[in-house]
Amino acid sequence: AEARFNVSNPALAEFAAAAAAWDAESAARDSESDAAPLRARPTPPPATVVETVALALDVTRHGPPRMSDAAREHARDLLRRMDADDAARVARSGAANQLESLVYHLRDIADDDDVAAVTTPAQRAALARALDAAADWLDANAELAPVAEIERQIAELRALEEPIAFRAAQLATRPARIAALRAAIAQAEDFAAQLRDQYAPKDLEPVARALEALEDSLDSTLAWLDALVAKQDALAPSDDPALTTNDLDAKARAVERSLAEVAAIAIKKASAESASAPQPETAAESELEPESEHTAPAAGHDEL
Fold first, then answer.
1. SS3 letters for the chain?
2. For residue 304, what pLDDT is reported?
């Protein structure tokens, strides 16, 4: 180690002596007219210079001793394991909270009228036993159980809940979807009947083929609907439905697409007929029309 200090420049004393000698020489030369030229005046050195001093130091380390590479790697592994344990604890706590919430939710709705309408007493008893078993298991294992095991408990309860929720939703929404499909069929049938009333059979082309396809589709859809409604009516609300709202919606969309295709062809046909029809003669055009050269002259007494 070394230390550096700013100290007075030792050359300053030599400069002072040289400057005094130069001043004396300059004064003597001023009295001699034939004296040789005076040498340049000495330049002053810097006032201070940096002086470097070597230092002998003894180093004493305070605090814990420096860790070895092996000890440092061991500490890092320990921190990684602690982070993994924290993440696992958070995941386990979240899964346990989800299971607990599901148990409370299913217990709350188990006695609802909507659930009672789509379940049998045996199904409700099985659900109650499953909820009690899940609650007991959670009390005993929530702190130590792996996340995968908690998720398995959740999946088992979901497997009991989802069919019940599905049947309840179908029971509530199916009548409106059946009515909507019947209305779509009736609308399409009215449109087809209007087309057949508007055109003679020979004048229906090119609408005829699309119209026949629409009518066949309506007949098959109505037969399908009547058969499945009868089958559904024969089932208990607690049975899995034979007719679902997804099926009804798909049929309704198919009817709407077929109707739109026929309507587009009919509109195109009507536009073509309107463009090719002769325009009626207006009154102004009749007044401007010249008389025919074959028109007979008016009778008079001066006729020759």
1. CEEEEEEECCHHHHHHHHHHHHHHHHHHHHCCCCCCCCCCCCCCCCCEEEEEEECCCCCCCCCCCCCCHHHHHHHHHHHHHHHHHHHHHHHHHHHHHHHHHHHHHHHHHCCCHHHHHCCCHHHHHHHHHHHHHHHHHHHHHCCCCCHHHHHHHHHHHHHHHHHHHHHHHHHHHHHHHHHHHHHHHHHHHHHHHHHHHHCCHHHCCCHHHHHHHHHHHHHHHHHHHHHHHHHHHCCCCCCCCCCCHHHHHHHHHHHHHHHHHHHHHHHHHHHHHHHHCCCCCCHHHHHHCCCCCCCCCCCCCCCC
2. 26
